[in-house]
Amino acid sequence: MRAVTDLPHAVKEEEHFWIPVSDGTRLAARMWRPLSSDDQPVPAILEYIPYRKRDLTSVRDSIAHPYLAGHGYACVRVDIRGTGESDGVLTDEYLEREQADAEDVLAWLADQPWCDGRTGMLGISWGGFAALQVAARKPPSLGAICIASFTDDRYADDMHYMGGCLLSDSLAESGTMFAYGACPPDPALVGQRWREMWLRRLESAGPWIIEWLSHQRRDDYWRHASVCEDYSAVSVPVFAACGWADGYSNAVLRLMAELDVPRMGLIGPWSHKYPHLGVPGPAIGYLQEVVRWFDRWLRDEDVEFDEPVLRTWMQESMPPSTAYEKRPGRWVGEPSWPSPHVRRDRRPLGPHRIAAEGERVESTGLTIESPLSVGQFAGKWCSYNAPPDLPYDQREEDGGSLVFDSDLLTEPCEILGAPVVRLDVSATAPVAMVAARLSDVAPDGRATRVSYGLLNLTHRESHDDPSPVVPGERYSVEIQLNGVAQAFPAGHRIRLSLSTSYWPLAWPPPEPVRLTVHTGASSIELPVRPVGESDEVSLRPFDEPEGAPAATVTALLPGEHRWTVSRDLVDYRGALDVVKDNGVVRFDDSGMEVGKRVLEHYGWTADDFTSVEGRTDWTMSFRRGDWSAGTRTQQVLTCTPTEFRLHARIDGFEGERRVFSENWDRTFPRDQV
């Protein structure tokens, strides 16, 4: 990425100040704004997240916010209450209080003498969620948002539940926020009250999965802050971006289809990263696009937007790998979404094959009862480009699956959108799941997963009101796979694989289940975009990535990243063990030394569905001079046929002395999961 030092406006930074909200709480903020804004007010752009502005996001912030400020905006990074140096405690995500605070912050910004009264919001992940959710509340100053890696549906399309199946990323995310919510504030900014603030956070901390397991179906808890409940609530222009390797790309497609505001969608090959930092590449000049968007909607500049509603990276075929530096392909543009270029190609499923559209196939019942090992090469629900977290060669997974292959492709085939699998299916138990995977099979047999979807069969009609499966009864069900843009070359095959488990990506059902899939009445629908189809729009090329110079950090201890799949053939114990160790680094501008080590373990024994367990262990440390504080957190989730069981623990340390400890033991009835 090109570091830019010569910007249109000279910039000044306020490293730390307080913004009061309506209940008297003070939120910690950092700001970059043009020097000229003292006399010539500018719009303000807010990024609102809980990830510590002075250290954990400071490098990323230093690239984006001074760059935007240098183009004429007051850019403000605010830590949500209970994080960083902000007062209060944080006990869950996307609460009413959090969103009300954001409205207060926007009102405060709009009222400052250096602000012209107009505001925007920018964010990725939590910041993208926050911007979209706050936009739906219609704060008067908010004029536009730029969001990345977000969802509009907190139940069906976030890291907690997918198709009514419990995701292991729910445990992983709970581990993240269990640790982050208990981090100490910086004494250099809050003084001696840091210890009082920190102890209050420790006392209020807890594993958030307690709340998430208390709501295993779509209820009012999940409807809150899910913008899909009322798209018309969003009345400001929206620039929405994501990557195909991310977990959130479906939301971009939905917003382009459902919003009735000026909007622009962008989906590249990236993981959970801003597009100017995007990996797998190619990364793009995203910050230039953000400037153009805000110039048009916050400054009323005459920026010409002859743009498609949706621009996506059409990925070319690649051998399976757990990490890619770049994904070859090309940009394609769609004038609207759903696109007039895409036709739905419904292909019947015959015995172990995907037939041609309109072909008559034999009707027969095919059975599958998958081992728990299917899923060990699935990768993460959401790739963070923490190699190796992408899915690997699917051939081993396919050995425990029901497989349907197309004939050899005689010409290239490209798809854009969400494939849909329709099954005529019966099961042998009242709670069952189906994992459906779409793969690109090369002539040498290697299978690269292109997309996938999950369905808890008790949720076949509703996520709100699931109902048990009647063993032996046939059901017509629909599984929507994740949207994707993918090119299948001539000489390859398209493969659909079905399994009854997908651990550890998703928690398996209470007991092994045998599914019977009836061919003839089952099908797959592919969103085919004819090769060579005119885009009907002229695609302006993206600039190369650029930003302000990144803040410097010094590595003090090396890190380690490792994924290990293991199997003991004596006791048949299998495991996926993940190490994400950032070592210890010093943030040079603040002098803070931060250590972070994360261990995740997902285990099982043979085909005992009650033997599965997930565990997260986090160690975080903060040090400057002779001051140090840190936490260790652990979660262990196990199950019986009728319950989930959680044990969790947190310990707080000053130096080597433990100053706080608490344990949790909770059980949760399995609500048809």
TrEMBL record:
One Pfam family hit: PepX_C
Domain Xaa-Pro dipeptidyl-peptidase C-terminal positions: 291-548
Keyword Hydrolase: yes
Alphabetized UniProt keyword annotations: Hydrolase
A molecular-function term among this protein's GO annotations: hydrolase activity
Record's keyword annotation contains Electron transport: no
Entry-linked PANTHER family: COCE_NOND FAMILY, PUTATIVE (AFU_ORTHOLOGUE AFUA_7G00600)-RELATED, PEPTIDASE S9 PROLYL OLIGOPEPTIDASE
Record's protein name: CocE/NonD family hydrolase
